[in-house]
Amino acid sequence: MTRPFQIAVSEADLQRLHQKLESATFPDELDDAEWDMGVPLSEMKRLTAYWHNGFNWRQKEQELNEKLFQFIVPVSVDGFGELDIHCLHHTSANPNAIPLLFIHGWPGSFLEATKLIPLLTSGDENYPAFNLVVPSLPNFGFSSAVKTKGFGLAQYAEAMHAVMTTLGYHEYGRHSSPSYTPQD
């Protein structure tokens, strides 16, 4: 049975992140190195300082929890047992809305779809509306990690189909990037 979900990162995890950011050391940089040699050192230092001193995780966590309808959907995958799949489930007021499974890219997360939710669920007489399901793939985000080797495309498909049927959708559209799982 599906259950509501709220993001709640532990204070210990946030403290550990801040300790790591505070103790970060940086290598020397090559002369005239820009993006052609990877992330420039100045940019890495700027990002590290922002994550350490400027980013407010608790505020972002609250925004996501207030804005997103999040659930855990337990599914069974043949040979891999039970997995808890985190997903967003936003339904349209339109009774003719089309169920749409929106699969994030790799690497990526459910956050890729958050700006699209109001656009896809609203619709009007000129555009279709969708009942949008945005899962975190197994091993990503707040979904279960697979503990057994061999979980591939067929198992990802089985897990996502199980999410959709558990939510009551037996026919649905799907959106995904060309390659949405890590390569074995």
UniProtKB/TrEMBL annotation:
Gene Ontology process terms (BP): epoxide metabolic process
Pfam families assigned to the protein according to its UniProt record, in alphabetical order: EHN
Keywords: Aromatic hydrocarbons catabolism, Hydrolase
Gene Ontology molecular function, alphabetical: epoxide hydrolase activity
Signal peptide annotation: none
Domain Epoxide hydrolase N-terminal: 3-112
Record-linked InterPro entries: AB_hydrolase_fold, Epoxide_hydro_N
SUPFAM superfamilies membership: alpha/beta-Hydrolases
Family: Belongs to the peptidase S33 family.
Protein name, per record: Epoxide hydrolase N-terminal domain-containing protein
Biological classification of the source: Eukaryota, Fungi, Dikarya, Ascomycota, Pezizomycotina
